[in-house]
Design goal:
The chain has 218 residues and is α/β, with parallel strands linked by helices. It has 2 domains: 2-78, Methyltransferase, Methionine Synthase (B12-binding Domains), Chain A, domain 1 (Orthogonal Bundle), CATH 1.10.1240.10; 91-217, Cobalamin-binding domain (Rossmann fold, 3-Layer(aba) Sandwich), CATH 3.40.50.280. Helices cover 58% and strands 10% of the residues. It has a 5-stranded parallel β-sheet with strand order 2-1-3-4-5, with helices on both faces. The radius of gyration is 18 Å and the shape is globular. The protein binds cobalamin (B12). Cobalamin binds next to helix 3, helix 4, helix 5, strand 3 and strand 4.
Length: 218
């Protein structure tokens, strides 16, 4: 089992899509949890990021990595029981205003959908008002903001301030991701920050489970 998982990280790092998909199929047949397989693939994408930073990979390679990730999600979703779908209120996602980075957001929304969450993805360079409108439209409890450039931190802060002005802040939990940390969380006023997309679904579940309005309807 461990050998297969190690091979999966390597295949993803080499961007060998055929090998990745074959290993995932094999892993599923062996009864390895899709979560474990997705975690290995994420570790592989981290390697791709490192190789890019060292100048050994190009931008097209990063995009290729996110395409492979999408294919894997489609594969593991094929046989999945989707009874959990729409069980929870829609989670709003978007890359904040001024920022157009969306590779990580797309991977994260893919994982969330895999976990049965209904996602409203507003795209990139999203003005603060659009998040407010989406929360109202979907009666959402969770807003997930992506940002990788420094300017994004102010956009995140503005988005959270606008939620507050609209009277929605108390009932919404804001999670930020991308190139963020605890200082950014404090600066922006977000509730949580995370950079590991495989942890977001669990975090959202626990947030919603402690929300009395939702817990009562479960
Ligand atoms: C790819 C890339 C681009 C691509 C983006 C393509 C796309 N469609 O996204 C292109 C070439 C377009 C680009 C443009 C620019 N980029 Co750029 N880019 C990158 C690069 C190399 C990789 C980012 C990436 O995709 N990583 C891989 C993904 C998987 O990681 P991730 O996004 O962090 O996502 C993970 C987690 O954060 C998490 N996650 C993501 N979203 C969320 C949301 C939530 C709620 C949660 C919980 C988790 C989560 O899930 C993912 C997996 O775990 C980074 C360098 C780097 N090492 O990060 C620079 C980088 C982010 N870019 C940078 C810059 C400066 C720019 C430009 C301004 C360049 C320019 N001069 O034009 C423009 C910005 C344009 C704009 N207005 O946004 C800087 C930012 C520096 C800064 N502090 O401001 C970086 C850090 C490069 C550098 N070292 O200088 N870029």
């Amino acid at each position: 089992m461990l050998k297969l998982q190690k091979m999966l990280v390597g295949a993803m790092a080499r961007l060998d899509d055929t090998m990745v998909l074959n290993l995932v199929k094999q892993g599923l047949r062996m009864g390895i949890s899709p979560y474990v397989l997705l975690e290995e693939i994420r570790a592989g994408t981290d390697r791709v990021g490192e190789l890019y930073s060292r100048g050994e990979y190009f931008l097209s390679d990063l995009i290729m990595a996110s395409e492979i990730f999408k294919d894997v999600l489609a594969l593991v979703n094929q046989d999945r029981d989707v009874r959990t779908k729409a069980f929870y209120p829609t989670v709003i996602f978007g890359t904040v205003e001024e920022d157009i980075h969306d590779i990580g957001k797309n991977i994260t929304t893919g994982i969330m959908r895999y976990n049965g969450f209904d996602i409203c993805d507003l795209g990139v360079n999203v003005p603060a008002q659009n998040f407010v409108d989406a929360v109202n439209l979907h009666n959402s409890r969770i807003v997930c903001l992506t940002g990788l450039i420094t300017e994004a931190f102010d956009s995140m802060k503005n988005t959270i301030m606008l939620l507050e002005e609209a009277g929605l802040r108390e009932r919404t939990t804001v999670i930020i991701g991308g190139l963020v940390n605890e200082s950014v969380r404090k600066y922006t006023g977000a509730d949580y920050w995370a950079t590991d997309c495989t942890k977001v679904a669990e975090l959202c579940r626990s947030i919603l489970a402690t929300d009395n309005r939702i817990a009562q309807s479960l």
